[in-house]
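Could you join me in thinking about how sequence relates to backbone shape in a protein? Would you write everything just below, so we can both look at the same thing?
***
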Amino acid sequence: MSHHEVVIVGAGVSGIAAAVQLRKAGVTDLVILEKADTWGGTWRANTYPGCACDVPSALYSFSFAPNPDWSRLFAGQPEILAYVERVARDHDLEQHARFGVEMLGADWDDAAGHWRLATTAGEITARFLIGCAGPWNEPAVPDLPGLSEFPGEVFHSARWNHDHDLDGARVAVIGTGASAVQFVRQIQPRVEALHLFQRTAQWVLPKPDHAVPGLERWVMRRVPGAQRALKLAEYGLMEALGVGFRHPHPVLDAVQAVGRAHLRLTVRDPRLRATLTPDYTIGCKRILFSNSYLPSLTRPNVEVHGTAVARIEGSTVVGADGTRAEVDTIILGTGFHILDMPVADLIRGAAGRSLAEVWQGSPEAYLGTAVAGFPNAFLVLGPSLGTGHSSAFAILEAQVALIVAAVGHARRHDGVLDVRPPVQQRYVDDVQAALAGTVYNTGGCASYYRDVNGRNSFNWPWSTGALMRRVSTFDPADYTLTTRLPEEIPA
């Protein structure tokens, strides 16, 4: 059994940021547990054709590691993964990483004042536990009758089977979210037939993507302040969209008009266009960006089924409306366990209850980071911090600043920190009250923003600037500090 001051679970973008900033703060006894074999998290796992970011590249990077060499306005998965891996190497994080080691459970030991972690490499104890598994970690596979008996090939977009030849295949794509919008346009020219099962029509906007000219990259590298100016300009444009999410009219009316025009110009068939026309306000679900997705659906080898899937009968996919498609391959574009993240079943707090048991289907955490009853533990990209327009890097860096300050405070006082329940409850109540008038709650759709109890446990209801200021600020008065020296840890 080994003991460490900090254990970070997950070696994606969040885990890297946490490790870098903790080391800068003087915390060197830390370990990063990663069940996979390398860095990258969701950018390592998602290798489907066309995988790319839908946030401008200049915003999609660490503030402490700006990248002047993005090749496109919206970077693709290989380039993002290479960037993330490079940052980890440049900050010498390899010495802290334990790849191929999965956390099986974590229990708070109140007498010892530390966490006990069961892992595939044995037991580890840690004074602080930082969960960086993220909400895009575990693919959501629908419980469809007959799916397990399907005689052909089945895989999720986040576990793409590159060994399976799609040339000439008859493919059913189930789900039309952000991943499907990217890979459908890539596989459509290769397959014999593509049956797209669409439970809900999506708003798709044109994507202003382009290759970044060499001159612009030279300016980013050589001209002081150029990167910062570009980042501020792109931030301002994205925040304008955020204003619309919080105050839907008239901003979203204009954005929705762009979406309608894009659909009208790319899909001439009125019947297909009607199937692809959403019946809710744009922004209620995640907005999708693509220049080629809608045109690909007009091709002769594509059939759009405007229905959910009811079941699989042998090689036939049966829609809820009775439509049938005979296929040899099923690709699931059905998203992730966003609010029912599996890690919540593994972490048990001071009362012996897991996060999942405490949450009862509605995740909540103070500033999306700390949960009452789970001392010296923190979540990155936790509940109620998601937006439809911000970069995840801005969110997670604000959280990491809070965590580093909290860890430093606890270390200075040889203490254990636990957020005060009334503080957490006031925050949750404020968030829910502020969400009431946003498009996330009033747009007339069913989205992954809503948990199993119908509550919006995903979205942040204010601006990104407000998020960065508030979430990054550690106030000791928000927490109880139990001062004690932990028991001696066995070697």
Summary: The domain at 147-211+216-232+247-332 is CATH 3.50.50.60 (FAD/NAD(P)-binding domain).
